[in-house]
Amino acid sequence: MFTLFCGVASAQLTVKESSPNFWQNVRFGGGLGLSTGSGYFSATVAPSAIYEFNSMFGLGVGLSGTYTKRKDFYKSTVFGGSLIGLFSPIRELQLSAEFEEFFVTRNFDNPVFEDDEYWHPALFLGAGFRTQNVTMGVRYNLLYDDDKSIYANAWMPFVRVYF
Predict the structure, then answer these.
(1) Residue 124: how many other CB atoms lie within 10 Å
(2) In what helix (H) or strand (E) does residue 122 lie, and over which residues does it extend?
(3) Owning domain of residue 67
(4) CATH code for the domain of 124
(5) Quick check: is 17 in a domain?
(6) What is the pLDDT of residues 41-76, one digit of tens each?
(7) Rounded to an integer, what distance in angstroms lies between the CA atom of residue 32 and that of residue 102?
(8) Cα 76 to Cα 23, 52, 103, 152, distances in angstroms
(9) Low-confidence spans in the chain with pLDDT less than 50
(10) Which of 15, 46, 56, 98 is spaced 20 to 30 A from 157 at the CA atom?
(11) How far is the C-alpha of 13 from the C-alpha of 84, rounded, in Å?
(12) Residue 10 lies in a domain
C-alpha cells in the first residue's frame, strides 16, 4: 500500500511540475511620461501586460491615463485602454497590431474654442527591432484623424520594455 501511494504521489508531482504556469508567460511593462515647459504640463501613466504564447506570438492589454494643461488655453484628460498582438518571425524582428480606445475631455479657457468630450479609436500597425526585453520601432495609425486624434501625426516611434 505504501509503495502504491508513493508511486501515485510521485506521478502527480511530476505532472504538476511539468504543467506550465500562466504567470511565467506574463510580461509586465508600460510607460511613464512627463513634459513641462513655460505654462505647459503633461503627465501620462500607462501600465500594460503581455502574455507570451511562445517565442513568436504574444497578446496583451494596457491602460492609459494622461493629464495635460496649457496655461490660459486648455486642460485635457485622456483615459482608455488597448489590446496588442505581437508576432516575431525571427527573434530580432517584432511586428505588432494595436487597437486603442480613449475617452478624451478637452476644456478650453478661450471662448473661441468649444469644450468637447468624445471617444477616439486608433489602430496601429508597427515593426520594431527587438533585443532581449526591449523593442524600438515605428508604428502607423490607420485611423488617424487630423481634427480628433490625440497624436500629432499618424507615424509614431515607440520603445517597448517588458519584464
Answers:
(1) 23
(2) strand 116-131
(3) 24-161
(4) 2.40.160.20
(5) no
(6) 999 999 999 999 999 999 999 999 999 999 989 899
(7) 17
(8) 36, 35, 10, 15
(9) 1-16, 18
(10) 56
(11) 36
(12) no
